[in-house]
Please model this.
Amino acid sequence: MGTKINLGKLSGQYAWRKIGCFFLAILSAAAMGLNFENTMEADNGILYGVLVSFQGWGIAEFLITLFLFCLYLYVNQNASIRKGIAVFSAFLASLMLLGLCYTNATGMALLVLNGAQMVKTGIVLIGYGAFFYCAVWFLEKWLKKLTGQKAGETKKPHSHLKTCAILFVCWLPYLAVCYPGTTLYDARTMLEQYFGLSQLTNHHPYFQILLLGTFVEAGHALGSGAAGMFVYVLLQELAFIFVLSYMLKCLEKFGIFEKVRKILLWIYALLPVFPVYAISVGKNMNFSIVLVLLTIFLFELIESDEAFLHERIKMVFLPVLLILLCLFRNEGFWIVVGCLPAFLWAGRKHWRIFAGIFAGVFLFGGLWFRCVLPALHVEDGSIAESLSIPFLQTARTVAYYGDEITEEEKQAIDAVLEYDTLPKRYLPEFSDRVKERYNNDATQEELAAYWKVYVQQFLEHPVTYVDAFLNKCYGYFYPDDLGRTKAWFVVGADISPLNEIGFDLYARFPNAVRKLDGLLEAFRQIPLLGYTSSVGFYTWCTFLSMFFILQSKKKGLLWLFVPAILVILVCVASPVNAYFRYELPVVFSVPYFFAVTVYAMKTGGIVQR
Model:
C-alpha cells in the first residue's frame, strides 16, 4: 500500500508559512522606515510610542512589503534554515542598530529607554535580520554561479597592455579635469613644512613630505610646480593601474574565470571612488596601493608558498613593500607588526626566512624613527594624536556629568585638556577640537593625575565611556552613515600659502572641477550605487567575504584579511568617524576580496551549516 499524504495538514503548514513570511515582511518594511529616535510614549502606552515612530505608510511601503513577502516565501520554499547565515545576519542587524543609536549621538540607552523603544529594538533586529538572511542567501547563490564556466567558453589570456589601457582611458577624464591633481589637507600641510612655512614634524610622515616636496620643487625649478605635482600624480596613478593589472593576472593564474576578472576590471574602471583617489595627493593613496599589493602577495604565499619563495623578485620586493608601509604612514609600522603572524602562518614551512625579513624591517623601523628622524631634527607628532578615544571619553563625561566632578578632578583634567571649554569643544564624531587644547608641556605628574581621574570616571560612568567610544567609530560599521564630519571625496587643487610666494599649485579648470564635484555628490544619491560612497559599506563587504570563506573548506584564506582588519582597527582609533580616506586600503581591496571569495567557493565549496 502506498503512503497516504495528508493534504490538509500540508495545506495548513503552507498557510502558516505564508503568515510567518508576511509577518516578517511587515517587520522588515517597518525596520526600514522606522524613526528610531522618536522616543514618545509617556502616558499613551507602548503601542502609541511605536506607531508615532513611523512617517505614515502609503503605496510605496505597501509595495515594499509585498516584494519582501514574495522574497521571504521563495527563500522559505527553496532553502532550509542555515544557522551560520542566521547568526551572521543577526550580527549585521546589530550593526544597523548600532548606527541607529549613535547617528545623533544619543547612545545605547536608546535601546531600552522605555517599552516602545524595546519593541522597536526587536523590530530592527528581527526585520533587518530576516532581510539580511535572504540577501546573504541570494548573494551566496550568485557567487556559486560565478564559480562555473559555461560550456564552450574559451580561456583568454590576461593582457597587461589591454587592462592598463582600459583603466587609463576610463580614468583619463578625472586626470585631465583635475590637473595638476587633487590636494587633500595633508598635502597642503606637508608642502608647507617642506618649504619652511610651518614647523617640520613627523605628524605627517617625513618620507611623504620629502617625496611630494621633491617633485614640486623640481617642477618649480623648471618653471611649474604644478607640472611637478602632476608628474607625481601620474606616476601614482600608473602604479595603481599596474598593481590592478597584476592582481587580475594573479587571479588568472589561480584559475579565476574571465567573467569574474572582467567584473573586477569594470568595477575598478567605472566606479568613481577609484579614479578620484588615484589622482589625489596625500599620505593615504600610495600607502593603500602598497597594502593592496602586499595583500596579493599574501594570497599567493597562502596558496603556493614554494612557488612564491622561488620567485626572487617577489622575495626582494616583499621587504621593500613592508618598509614602504612604515614610511608612508606612521601607523604602518604597527600594521607590519600585525601582519607578521599571517606571513609566518602562510610561509610556515620556511618561517625562519619570513621571520628574518620582518626582523630586518623592524630594525629599519626602529632606526628610522629613533635615530634617523632625530638626527634630521624632525620632531615627533603630538602624543595627543594617539589619544582620541580617551580624550573624547573624558570630554563626554564632562559634558554630561560636569556637575558631579570634584574640584580636584577638574584641576587634573584642566592641566591636560583645558577643562572650562571642554564641553563646548566636544564633538562626538571628531576629536580634533578636544585635542587642539592638549597641553604638550604637561608634566609626568600631571599626566599621572589625569589618568587617575580617567579611571575613576570610567568606574563611575562606564556607559558614557562606551558611548563616547562607539559614537566616534560607529560609521565604519554602519553603511547608512555618509560621513558627515568629513567629505567622502575631494577634487581640485589649491595650496594657497605656496601660491602666495610664487608657486602655481591650483586647479587649471575650476568650472569643470565644480561640475565634477556636483556629479560626484549626485552619484551618492543613486539607489544602491550610492552605498559605494559609504565607508561602512566596504567594511560590510569585507565581513561578507570573510563569512563566505569561513563557510568554505579554504579557511586558511582568512589570514588574507589581516591587513584589512588592522586598517579598520586603526580607523576605530582614528580622530574622525567614518572618514573615507582613512579606510582607503580596505576600499581598494574589496573587489579583490570578492574574487578571492569566488576562488574559495570554486576550490573549497560551501559547507552547509
Notes: The chain is about 65% helix and 0% strand. The longest helix spans residues 115-146. The mean pLDDT is 91. The two ends are 37 Å apart (CA to CA).
